[in-house]
Amino acid sequence: MAMLAFYDADFPFWGVRPSHMPQQAVMHCADTLSDALNRATMPAVFVHLHGRYFPAAAWPALLDFLHRGGNMLTLGQAVFSQPVGANGQHQPQAALFRQLDIHEIQNVDAAHSSHLAAGANFPWLSEHLEELDLNLSASTDSLVLMPTKTKDQPLDSGSAGPMDARIYPLLMALDAQQQHIASPIVLIERLRGAMAGSRQVFANITPDDQFWQQGGMALLEQLAKHAAYGVTECWLKPGFACYEPGEHATLTLQAEALGQAQGQNWTATITTRYRDAVIDQKALQLNTHHAGLQSLRFTLPHAIAAGLYTLQVELRSEQGDVIDLQQGFWGRDAELLARGTRMRAGRDYFIRDGKTTPIVGMTYMAGDVHRKFLHLPNVALWQQEMGTLASMGVNYLRTGIWSAWRQLMFVDGHANEALLRAIDAFILTAASHDLECCFTFFAFTPEAWEGRNPYLDPRSRSAQKRFIRSIVSRHTDTKRVHWDLINEPSLFDPQRIFVGPRSLGDALETRAFIRHLQAINPDLGHWQRAWDLSPAQLADWSAVRPPQPEDIGFNTTEIAVKQHGIWLDYALFTQAVHREWAADLAASIKALIPDVMVCVGQDEALGQQRPSPFFFADAVDYTSVHSWWLNDALGWDSLFSKTPNTPNLIQETGIMHVARANGRSRRSEAELMQLLERKYAYAYSYGNAGAVQWIWNCNYHMDNINESHIGACRADGSQKPEAAITAAFGQFIKNTGVWLENRQLANIAVVYPFSNDYSNRRTTLAATQAMVRNLAFEFGANLRAVGEHDLSSLFAAPPQLLLLPCPQNMDATCWQQIEQLLAEHPITVLLTGPATLDRYFNPCQRAPFHHANIRNLSREETLHIADATYRASYIGEASAQLDTGCDAAGLAEQIEHVSLGQGQVIWCPLPLELNANPETLSALYQYAMNAAGIQAAWHWIEAETGKQIAQAPTGIFLQQQPFAAHTLWIAVNESSRARTLHWQAGEHRYRTELAAGRALLWLTDQHGVVIDSLWQHPVEKL
Predict the structure, then answer these.
(1) How far is 924 from 905, CA to CA, in rounded Å?
(2) How many CA atoms within 13 Å lie on the side-chain side of 831?
């Protein structure tokens, strides 16, 4: 073995320089390094002692060295981040380490670590821990890996890719609670691709005097020795992840020396435990001197019983290399699966074992192989990681199949038994920790099998049911599992997801679209008028085609003549198809298990004209939203996915990777934690049922930068600061969740204008977001939402104030429902913008607006509210996009009051939510609330005098949610400054501190006493 090292006394160095060099290494300076690397013969290991600094001229030689199978050990933080030119100049850049498939190097604060531990898979440092006393008070690093550059399933958006590299902690920093919070030393093993066989050890430590005095050089020599062996890839795999009682388990132990790795003779000591008791131990020999995969199969001597089996493998080579593996499998435990009662859905929250259960959840696949967890199951790892989650207070685990459905059921109707048993094992593992498991069948669009349209082809639909029932039928008595039909659905084209409805143009879809239209109105003339088409253009039903977006006039200025009104009807058609598809598949499941929950895991589709919960809530047991992109509209996300009669779960929330203009990561780990905390807080606002983080483990086995960054745990398995958010909410909900019973409905309801939002000139997104932002931050108002097409819930629970924010075009049936509602209840309705445009933006007559008209907006408009005059500004393209209502004289300055039934309509002719002056909008909302007789349940007060103040603290979201005997408070600080908050609710006054960017929840009882708070943060009752 050749060891060459780079150290140059005249070269930049970060930290304390070493006093002596590795004993077995041939040392090289910057000038000789390139030649030495090029001449190195394998096996060889390169030791780099200069951390972030590396001679730029030698970089091609180092890459070639690694591509030839060379191994490497580095010392120092931010490794290879500052290449040094021939003139000695250097500056930070990512280009070098990114060629090692390290997308980013994140600084990790390990100051609160209490002790060190050796890594589990490669325990090379276990004998050195006593003398190793690293100073981690400053920091270490996290390497964000992205070694995967292709997809296994090129046509699947959710496809994983080849596992070309894996990272392992060699040294772990643990906190006082034994949580793994940092990995100062890590090993990257290159398994496939250009660097296959290369072992690369990164000691992400800034050396100080203590490091060298405590034997730092001896530590590096030990690491270099192990790195020099190269990669021997080892696996222990059970034939099945779950066996039936009475069967015998057969397992395979395999190993292969990759690339230029040294072949070795290995002894594998395998210990098998059943329910933690040793039941078998054996030693096997493997010889990797021979090229190719070496494998041994063996069968355990005892018949399988119900329960958990774990296996520990200690692999020791004749040359001193050490690898440990863990594995496990289940004996199917029917009693465990049947334990407890099924979770069910209430109006707002879930009920489990008779108790109200707000959700603190986590998406989980596996920390080793991620989305391949069903193909390469490791029950022992699942058991360990789920145990960690359960200890944090997680009560809901989401998982499923995001790709490669044909591998589970290649032939329609014939499912793969090994994969089915892997699913069984996963559900058993979750049940053993009392975790509710939500299993997802499809993602984005359902697999079509041999059909032409994934939603409409009967052949596809039948295959989908067979696929689902092959899984569900094995769990008819299982209590801790329910089923998610599809993750983030789009219709119809699988290659055009996340962009709104996209037609496949097939005959099935065309016929279904025509039937949908005929069911609404069989008169072809109705559609000619609605879509502004002549009898020649739409001569008969055979001329109807689903539109493509390029056929539609979405912009105010188009080059070609395009269609308009048909887009609204097509978008609504896709909603109907999705609902019917979901209802059909849900019915197939419930035919087997009538009381099991079924859901659809939808993302922020309301912003993309894709399936909305308001159209399919009656087909499922609960709805969801995945709050990813709209970080400035998180309250809006929660409000407009919560339907009146079903719980809504923020079923995925996390933080997308955001890059600066130079390509480097924008957010620190501390900032990621704060944003996640705010997202969790909003997940309980407006009566929502809780939050599920995406995801526990970063997934670096995808060709996707986001997936490499997103996750509560880093690639090396250590927990990011954001993992503490789940634990904090888990503890708070565990202490308080049972008291969140009989939530009082908000006295302000909002109608979401779907006719506008699904049209070709949608402005609803901006209007409703402005509305929520204003009412939440300026008034602390609680709200509830209904869809324009269905106001039925308001008849049973009428609000005092009903808002129609800038609907522009409105369906006639919506206004008819409002008229009927006001005929029965004394409700105040606030309508902003035009009152007399039909669903296709055509002028119409609408009682009681007999003298109303429309006109174009001016850049500056004036509005009189009560005794004051306000400015309404319409900037950008607003004057080209929007209409305003007005009277017969063209004036839009006056607010009109119209009596209607037992209630009243307040009409503001201007589309005020879309104006640029929030103060004017606030004045209108205050006016409407006064007219509706709404009195605030709480208000801000001065710290010194206790007097009420009108001005809300900048950037503070504070919401009160009253329950039968308790009140939940949610506070979010969206500003860059810490705030001291003072407020009064009834006769009770309170005070708390809220740091910049942070969030807080607390619960009070009927006497105003603070029962509990997030993080046990002080909330004083004055």
Answers:
(1) 13
(2) 29
User: Count of alpha carbons within 13 Å of 208, Cβ hemisphere only?
Assistant: 9
Mean pLDDT (10-residue bins), the chain, 1022 residues: 93 95 92 97 97 98 98 98 95 97 96 92 89 73 97 94 97 94 97 96 94 91 96 98 98 97 95 96 96 96 97 97 98 98 98 96 97 98 98 98 97 98 98 98 97 98 98 98 97 95 97 98 97 97 97 94 96 98 98 98 89 97 96 96 98 96 96 98 98 97 96 98 98 98 98 97 97 98 97 98 97 97 98 97 94 96 97 96 96 96 98 98 98 96 92 96 98 97 97 98 98 98 94
Please tell me the distance from the alpha carbon of residue 718 to that of residue 329, in angstroms, as a whole number. 25
Helix residue spans in 780-852 (DSSP H): 792-796, 812-824
Contact yes or no for 910/863 (Cβ under 8 A): yes
Q: Tokens 């609000």 identify what position?
A: 799
- Amino acid occupying residue 145: L
Question: Is 365 in contact with 397 (CB distance < 8 Å)?
Answer: no
Which neighbouring-strand residues pair with 979? 994
The 3-state DSSP class for residue 246 equals: coil
768 φ, ψ (degrees, to nearest 5): -70, -35
DSSP 710-773: -SSB-TTSPBPTTHHHHHHHHHHHHHHGGG--SPPPPSEEEEE-HHHHTSSS--HHHHHHHHHH
Rounded to two decimals, the pTM is: 0.97
> 873: which 2 tokens?
């500004």
Q: Is 45 helix (H, G, I), strand (E, B) or coil?
A: strand
Q: Which residue carries 């007789």 as its tokens?
A: 933
Question: Does residue 565 contact residue 587 with C-beta atoms inside 8 Å?
Answer: no
Contact 424, 472 (CB under 8 A): no
